[in-house]
Amino acid sequence: MLHTGLLPNGNFEQGPKPSDLKGTVIKGKYSLPKWVKKGLVEYISGGPQPGGFFFAVPRGVHAIRLGNEASVHQYVRVKKGSYYSLTFSATRTCALDEVLGVSASNDSADLPIQTLYSSNGGDTYAWAFKATSQIVKVAFHNPGKEEDPECGPLLDAIAIKEMAPLPKPIGNMVKNGDFEIGPHVFKNFSTGVLLLPHAHDYITPLPGWIIESLKPVKYIDSTYFFVPSRSFAVELVGGRESAIAQIIRTVQDQFYLLTFKIGDAKNGCNGPMLVEAFAAKDTVKVNYESKGKGGFTSASLKFKAISDRTRLTFWSSYYHNTVDFSHMCGFLPNGNFEEAPKPSNMKKTVIVGKHSLTEWDFNGLVEYISGGPQPGGFYFNVPRGVHAISTIRTCAQEQSIRVAASGTTVDLPIQTLFSGDGGDTYAWAFKATSQNVKITLKNPGIEEDPACGPLLDAIAIKEILLPHYIGGVLIPSHPHDSVSSLPGWIIESVRPVKFIDSKHFYVPSGSSAIELVGGRESVIAQIIYTKPNVSYLLTFKVGDAKNNCPSSMEVEAFAGKENVKVHFNSEAKGGFTTASLKFHAISDRTRITFWSAFYHTRLDYGYMCGPVLDDVKVVHVMY
Predict the structure, then answer these.
(1) Which residues form the signal peptide (predicted)?
(2) CA dihedral in degrees (222, 322, 116, 243; nearest 10)?
């Protein structure tokens, strides 16, 4: 029976025979000891690599890289019916959006590999499954089809742990409230274990808890981090984007007291911190001034249950770092919702009647909201007018808005992360397939609280700059450059980029530019036509947006096999530097890619900001 720890050759230190290697590529299906491989799998030694890359293997010397559609698997003996957690180290190796597929016991998931939470390539993830038989196939797979077939996630240090059943709570209604039951943590080197979002609390590396929204939380241990009590805790590394929650049994109309501790992990994360806790209709904000040396404070929240189930939710309020061709332009009819329903068509804030909202038809529960204080202690901002309908999220739950037009649909996560006043603006593009198109915005979620849901305001067609208010326009991730709010460009990864204008921001040249607000998580790219073995010169400008974001900034640019790091010291007063990268084309198409190497937050409310990218050019050069 398998015990907790590394899988057989889970650290890949038992390598293939020299005769089974062609350079770094493993030949033969069974050449990697204890594993079965399929497709292009490379055996990697940590350190400098061809093309100027550096692969870190912090838990040993060797790792494997999975090429397009490549996989490795092995069979392990387990207890049927038990729950298990896999812990593994994974890192992306190219400036592309990379995904690692993991599967076991007829369950599977595609995990985005970002390498965002540690600087040494040591990001560690956990994923859980339930054993449906005594022998299960554990597999890791690269499902992507990368432009460069040599790109793919780096995989190392794979361990397994049987999850102990949760004990019955005694004197505490919260299950696993001390976080002592969790995934395997490596003892020889730990950067914490990232627990990716999951909507359920039963098959999970952290039993009893739900990880909400887009970002993971980090499971940390007292050997390598400061933990307020006992051996383990959770670090809220994703700001408002990673909410941790649990649903507990309560008795309606009874009062309860929620207590908890917050602190810093003694990992160089300095500055003012703020954790928000929610229970039923009540909330509390807990401040903590971190000096990066460890320490904590205790907090409490008294709440009244409104049903037999109550959701407890926690998030960090701040973020911390170690063109179409249509003729229509402007607001849609009543796109700002300032033409209100008649009073007879209102039941408090709820709109009554399908056609009661001027110029709009609706289905389901739609509320007409006036900006300002709301019942339950909330405050809704409507910065572009007075009224909105209930895409700012309004509760401490994961929310999204579904946008559909002309046969195209997308679900956009609503985070309110990039401005301090609730005024986040998004852009989405579609291609008209007829002269009349139906534009629909929908809340696809089934919220625990039916009154929750995204706040929607100021709907325009074709990207516009509102004259009385502009905070930039967020352009979400999209993998294609044809139907795009920013024609010609691909927005890669999980975070958006921000389209900014020279009236409200500093722009190096012309009227518009892009602000890289998401660090390594928001990658902007374009694929250009090139001739193999011909040299080219990429030039661009990097600066700051003059938006209260002083910091040492760095933009990384990639083209072919070459890359360059461009430093710019922002004093938040505007300004820019010009940079260049000479590259040699290796095919008839070359991807040029940009990201911000660091994460930045504004001095006012901790909202995310970043370097400005502008004036990108590529020309043919002679060596």
Answers:
(1) none
(2) 60
Q: Which of 360, 417, 355 is nearest to 600 (CA)?
A: 417
Share of the chain above pLDDT 70, in %: 77
- In single-letter form, the type of residue at position 472 comes to G
Q: Do domains 1-163 and 477-623 have the same CATH topology?
A: yes
Rounded CA-CA distance 80/131 in Å is 5
d(CA 257, CA 138): 43
- The Cα–Cα gap between 569 and 611 comes to 10
**CATH classification of 477-623 is 2.60.120.260, yes or no?**
yes
Measure the CA–CA gap between 314 and 261, rounded to whole angstroms. Answer: 11
Q: Model-level pTM?
A: 0.58
Q: Are 26 and 14 in contact (CB under 8 A)?
A: no
CATH 1.10.238.10 fits 196-322, yes or no: no
φ/ψ (deg, to 5) at 488: 95, -20
Distance CA 556, CA 537 (A): 15
Tokens of 285: 């904000």
Best CATH choice for the domain 1-163 from the list 3.10.150.10, 1.10.10.410, 2.60.120.260, 3.40.640.10: 2.60.120.260
Question: Measured between alpha carbons, how far is 420 from 311 in angstroms, rounded to an integer?
Answer: 26
Ranges 162-166, 440-444, 567-571, most confident:
567-571
Higher pLDDT, 255 or 213: 255
182-201 core/surface letters (b: 16 or more CB in 10 A; e: else):
bbbbbeeebbbbbbbbbeeb
Maximum Cα interatomic distance, the chain, rounded to a whole number of Å:
82
Q: Give 483-540 pLDDT, tens digit per residue.
A: 667 888 988 766 788 999 898 899 999 999 999 988 887 789 999 999 999 999 999 9
Q: Are 242 and 213 in contact (CB under 8 A)?
A: yes
Q: Computed from CA positions of residues 109, 115, 116, 118, in that sequence, does the dihedral angle turn out positive or negative?
A: positive
For residue 555, the surrounding DSSP H or E stretch is: strand 551-559
The residues spanned by each domain of the chain are 1-163, 196-322, 323-471, 477-623
